[in-house]
């Protein structure tokens, strides 16, 4: 039996970087006042269709959708934002305090063509802020991302930012875009032509090389911003500049989801080939209302956890298994029984302790202690037990001490907790 295409195991040997990232991210989120939210993996299909947009790659081609036994259409979440918005509305969180900050970490599902950095089950670290319109929050989220990457020792990442405007500026942009597309119509693929009437902005997502060439000089939202959007974007840029954060304005960055308004950004890397976006986010001031809540500005981002780990693997090859505090070498049945109780008590006291239950020889057990990178080995053989003592060996210094059985566990805790 094998995993499904695009799905994979993350094995214990690979997990240390995942845990490192998760720890740093949670610490940072808590510092910035975010609270964890956990949302279901399965939602009604409508939720994603309405928020991400019916005419987007994700909804048209990539969702894992099936009918439940009662005929209801359900979808494995392709992203977290829609569900978090649903939760914010469903629990009327706005009524108690409209300003909320959430983070979540977990798997997402998109049926894309698998390749390096692109999987059908992948993980996101997602953050969302509700109830704040200020451009400082936009800068703050980009700052937070930058800080996380800095703490993880990542370099060579670049922030690309754009403004997608608001319902006020969209009509003028859409008109310019449609005029332009009309003039390039004969060079566009069928999918683009189909999208012309339905959702012209999504033509700019087309990956077909000829379409990309034809659309190279397409009008940009940035050239059609209303005064408020333009001021908002200026504040984001000046704030980032004052903080000394590197970014570039990328007029062609449109993201692949329909809900965005105003600031949108991506953090890109050159080290993952075609899958350059390590994180993406933006404002979505209309979505809470669109899904049935009160008008509430909102903004967020998601980091591609798999991609982030892959970038880190290229620079950070060191972290292996963390060492074991103690390995107990027990020889004979009596010793094994005693060792069993000692190891449980030591585990209870947060001492990383292991033993072997297979009745192996001294030589084999010492080998195993080495393999597990044990810092200390406790040797409990029949001779030692007869003298009511066991030997503790420090594997680094090779020093040995004899410890009395009567006070063994507290004595070990004292030595090993140092
Ligand atoms: P997104 O750009 O679709 O945005 O995804 C965010 C990140 O998830 C991407 O930059 C990428 O690193 C990672 N990612 C996406 N698809 C895959 C895949 N198939 N395999 C591996 N990694 C992948 C969103 O999902 C928005 N919900 C972000 C957001 C939150 N906007 C506002 N709030």
Rg estimate, integer Å:
28 Å
Kindly report the average pLDDT value: 95
Low-confidence stretches: none
Q: What ligands does this structure carry?
A: histidyl-adenosine monophosphate
Secondary structure class reads alpha+beta
Q: What's the main sheet like?
A: 8 strands, mixed
Number of helix segments?
16
Main sheet strand line-up: 1-5-6-11-10-9-7-8
Cα separation of the termini: 46 Å
**Percent range for β-strand residues:** 15-25%
Strands, total number:
16
Assign a percent range to the helix content. Answer: 25-40%
Q: Can you describe this structure?
A:
The protein has 418 residues and is α+β, with helices and mostly antiparallel strands. Helix content is 39%, strand content 22%. It is built from 16 helices and 16 strands. It has helices at 15-31, 45-52, 57-62, 81-90, 93-96, 135-151, 170-184, 190-198, 209-214, 227-242, 287-290, 305-315, 333-348, 362-371, 382-386, 408-416, and strands at 35-36, 42-44, 65-67, 73-76, 100-109, 121-130, 157-163, 247-249, 261-269, 277-283, 298-304, 324-330, 353-355, 374-380, 389-394, 400-404. The strands form 3 sheets. It has an 8-stranded mixed sheet with strand order 1-5-6-11-10-9-7-8. A hairpin with a 7-residue loop joins β9 (261-269) and β10 (277-283). α1 packs antiparallel against α6 and α6 (135-151) runs parallel beside α10 (227-242). Histidyl-adenosine monophosphate is lined by residues 79-81, 110, 112, 117-119, 122, 124, 126, 128, 256, 277-282, 300-302, 304, 306-307.
